[in-house]
Structures are given as structure tokens and as C-alpha cells.
């Protein structure tokens, strides 16, 4: 179920080098805004190390997700975009089942990590400015507090919206409440385009062993 089989071309921003470049630009930009240009060599080196780590982490997560849901790693970002936008459903029933499995995997991780993820982020974003205030760098402390509050607010909003859209996409595919997904290839008694989709997309509730 690769990207070429579905006529899909992987977007350039989904490639590993684009992920690394984005992380590098954001890291260097933030550090330069706080520390100034005087320390740019160290900032650049640190940015390269951090970008390398984050690129490895993101690509590793995609490969694990792909193995768990039964698709190619190159298709995972596209499926996530469709879920986040509550967009067009895949026409292939196998991809619909993969999307259901990806949604359930994300929902499970959100439930499992909810109790520690946001408190940890709050500690990081509001704890670092405390050290800047203690060091007498009031300007950096204020900027840090403002950035932390804005980022955490955005995270809460995005998380809630993503949860709602995951549930909405899952209901569209599964036909919860009688709202069956239909299309040109759907026939009588089919629950999705081109084939039947039972209660949880053909038993897609589970996660493949060893996927986490």
C-alpha cells in the first residue's frame, strides 16, 4: 500500500531533510532572538545536533506508525493531515482501515501521555524564565513567559481540535449512527467506498504487537 500504488507523491515538506531544515531554522532563530548574534557559531552547532536528533525521532515514529497501521512511512504524514483537517477520505478501503488504526493509535497515546506531557511542558516553558529572572535578564524572562504562555495555549487548542477531528473522521469511516460513508464505488450494504467497513474498520481497533 505504498504511496506510488495510490498515485500519491510525497510532499517535499514531509521528507527527512525538510524536517531537519525546519527544526534547524526554528532553533537558530529562537536562540539568536534571545542570545544575539555574538554566539552564532555555538548556536549553529547546537542547532545541527538538535535538528539531527529531532529528524531521527520523527522518522523513527513514522516508521513505527506505518508498521502498526499497515501502510508506508511516506503515507503517514498525509493521513495525519487528512485527519487534522477532517478532510477527504481515502478511496481505498485498505487506506481507510489504516487511517482508523492510526486514529486509535493516536487516541491511545493521548490518553496515556495526557497526565504528564502538559505539566512537563509547563514546567519547562515557565521554569526557564525563572532562571533568567534570577540571573537579572528581565527582558529574556518576559519574552520566555510570553512565548511559553502562547505556545501552551496553542497546544491545548490544537490538541482539543485534533481529538474532535479524529473522532469525526472515525465516525465518517465507520458509519457510526447510521451515517454510512458512500461514494461512486459503494454498493448496497457497503459501509465505505468500494467495500464493507464493519464496526471498527475490519477489526482495526488493536495495535500491531511490538509497534510501540
What average pLDDT do the residues reach?
Answer: 79
- Main β sheet profile: none
SS class: mainly alpha
The general outline is globular
Q: Name the poorly predicted regions.
A: 1-7, 176-212
Tally of alpha and pi helices: 5
Q: Considering DSSP H and I runs of 4 or more, what fraction of the residues is helical?
A: 55-70%
Distance between the amino and carboxyl termini: 21 Å
**Hey, roughly how much beta strand do the residues contain?**
under 5%
Structure summary, number of beta strands: 0
Evaluate the radius of gyration.
21 Å
Order of helices and strands: HHHHH
Care to describe what's here?
66% of the residues lie in helices and 0% in strands. It is built from five helices and no strands. Helix 1 packs antiparallel against helix 2 and helix 4 packs antiparallel against helix 5.
Structural features:
single chain; 5 helices; 0% strand; disordered N terminus; disordered C terminus
Amino acid at each position: 500500500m505504498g504511496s506510488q500504488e495510490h498515485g500519491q507523491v510525497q510532499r517535499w515538506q514531509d521528507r527527512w531533510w525538510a524536517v531537519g531544515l525546519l527544526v534547524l531554522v526554528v532553533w537558530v532563530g529562537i536562540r539568536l532572538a534571545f542570545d544575539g548574534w555574538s554566539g552564532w557559531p555555538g548556536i549553529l552547532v547546537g542547532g545541527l545536533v538538535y535538528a539531527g536528533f529531532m529528524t531521527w525521532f520523527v522518522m523513527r515514529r513514522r516508521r513505527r506508525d506505518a508498521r502498526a497501521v499497515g501502510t508506508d512511512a511516506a503515507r503517514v504524514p498525509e493521513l495525519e493531515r487528512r485527519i487534522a483537517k477532517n478532510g477527504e477520505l481515502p478511496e481505498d478501503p485498505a487506506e481507510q482501515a489504516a487511517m482508523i488504526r492510526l486514529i486509535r493509535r493516536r487516541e491511545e497515546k493521548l490518553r496515556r501521555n495526557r497526565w504528564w506531557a502538559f505539566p512537563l511542558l509547563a514546567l519547562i516553558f515557565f521554569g526557564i524564565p525563572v532562571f533568567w529572572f534570577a540571573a537579572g535578564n528581565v527582558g529574556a524572562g518576559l519574552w520566555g513567559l510570553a512565548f511559553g504562555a502562547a505556545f501552551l495555549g496553542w497546544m491545548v487548542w490544537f490538541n482539543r481540535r485534533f481529538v474532535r477531528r479524529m473522532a469525526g473522521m472515525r465516525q465518517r469511516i465507520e458509519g457510526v449512527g447510521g451515517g454510512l460513508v458512500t461514494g461512486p464505488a459503494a454498493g448496497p450494504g457497503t459501509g465505505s467506498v468500494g467495500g464493507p467497513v464493519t464496526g471498527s474498520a475490519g477489526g482495526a481497533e488493536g495495535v500491531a504487537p511490538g509497534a510501540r
